[in-house]
Specification:
five-stranded antiparallel beta sheet, four-stranded antiparallel beta sheet
């Protein structure tokens, strides 16, 4: 699946895409900037890309079809951090926050004092569905 983590100041994600036990790539982009919003996608990659495309169109087109059981995202705005599931309705969450197959490990690491990128690196050690390079973004809002 993936591991995404944020503390509200930085956002980090792994770069692995898997299907079952097969690794498609360890070089996928999972974090996108759409206007003044950072979007990190988790789960079925094609659903995530469709969601990002819909956001780029300012939600003016029909809602994208996303996986009912394997899609989620984190939205980070100047108003806070929100999680999104297949219903595409943002819900504000508390910080720190992590999601994906390595999310519980990353959250524990952040609660113990790690940065989001450090937390992702810890999750990579125990979660085979997360891997590749850690992508880290300093969150800046206009």
């Amino acid at each position: 699946m993936t591991t995404i983590a944020t503390d509200g100041e930085t956002l980090a994600a792994d770069s692995r895409i898997t299907e079952g036990n097969y690794i498609f790539t360890d070089e996928a982009e999972k974090v996108f900037k759409v206007g003044d919003t950072y979007v990190a996608i988790c789960g079925e990659y094609q659903s995530g890309l469709a969601y990002v495309d819909w956001l780029k169109k300012e939600r003016s087109s029909e809602k994208p079809t996303v996986s009912e059981d394997n899609f989620s995202a984190i939205l980070v705005t100047s108003d806070g951090v929100f999680c999104v599931d297949n219903m595409l309705i943002p819900m504000k969450v508390s910080l720190p926050y992590a999601m994906g197959s390595g999310g519980p490990v990353a959250l524990g690491a952040m609660l113990a004092g790690c940065s989001p990128a450090e937390a992702i690196n810890i999750a990579l050690q125990v979660d085979a569905s997360s891997g590749g390079e850690v992508q880290e973004y300093d969150l800046e809002f206009e």
